[in-house]
Amino acid sequence: MYEKFRFGNATTVLAWLLFTLTCSPANAYLGPGGAVSSIGALLALIGAVLLAIIGFVWYPVKRMLTGKRRASEADDEDNKEDDDSHEEREKLQ
Fold this sequence. Notes:
Layout: H1 2-22, H2 32-92
């Protein structure tokens, strides 16, 4: 079992060496305009992905958290109003 595994690794390394030593250069040139355009497109893609994550994850969480905070503030105000009305009733009696 281990011999087969070692043979597989040796074959992979040999194939990798064969391909890297025998391949010719691509002779590809990317001019300044193409390079700037490619970098701009890559940055736009990264920004779009980040904004999508923020839109789908952060804003609903933020809305949920502010909703809970508003609800607790509303409860505090209701309790305060109940205390004030109770004090006014006691004064009238």
